[in-house]
Amino acid sequence: MKGFVYANIIAAVAAFVGSTTVNAQATQKPEAIDYAVYSAVVDQLSGRWASPLVLIIDRTVSPNLSKLDLAESLPAELIEDFRLKNTVAYSLERDFKLSKKYRLISEAEGAARHAGGAPIVALSRIGFNRKKDWAFVYFIARQTELSRKEQFVILSKEPEGWRVIRSVPRFVH
């Protein structure tokens, strides 16, 4: 009986600690480095769009890494940080530094937008290596109802800022 009680207490403590960790991740806000990477991705991958405005979904998305060949050629710490962070989404704020104007919109508002408007962008949380000089992020861009591109993006921190060094399309329509 005593062992049963202890087992239940241990299980309850483990559940509490696990939920505290998840709640801490859920309330975590993006840092300046996150916005620097997000801004580089949006600027560098949306530069050819004619629209002077970019609409950004105000909550991060969580992509599926299955069948991603690229993951095998990246440092394990980068992929692990990406996987860990993307178990919980977080809200984005108006801290982007873009060359174009932008507006944050809800996912529902993004789904309701019709073709021909400003491009709509969604981003995952960012995985970093320990030195924080490599970043890995998922980027989704929709210009029209029939035009959508999803891609994994690898960035390197250069003296002049973050630079996209590789992009692997996941879905193009």
SSE map:
Elements: H1 2-27, H2 32-45, E1 53-57, H3 76-85, E2 101-105, H4 107-112, E3 120-123, E4 127-128, E5 134-144, E6 147-158, E7 161-172
Write structural notes for this entry:
It is a single chain. Strands 1, 2, 3, 4, 5, 6 and 7 form a 7-stranded mixed β-sheet that branches. Strand 6 (about 145-160) and strand 7 (about 160-170) form a beta hairpin. The termini are far apart. This protein is about 30% helix and about 30% strand. The radius of gyration is 19 Å and the shape is globular. It has 4 helices and 7 strands, in the order ααβαβαβββββ. It is α/β, with parallel strands linked by helices.
Would you tell me the structural class of the helices and strands?
alpha/beta
Helix content bin: 25-40%
Q: Give the percentage of residues in beta strands.
A: 25-35%
Rounded to the nearest angstrom, the distance between the terminal CA atoms is 60 Å
Q: How would the global form be characterised?
A: globular
**Strand and helix order:** HHEHEHEEEEE
So how many helices?
Answer: 4
| Unreliable parts | 1-27
Strand segment tally = 7
Rg (C-alpha, Å): 19 Å
Sketch the major β-sheet. Answer: 7 strands, mixed
Mean pLDDT: 81
Question: Could you write a compact summary of the structure shown?
Answer:
The protein is of the alpha/beta class.
Summary keywords:
173 residues, alpha/beta, 4 helices, globular, disordered N terminus
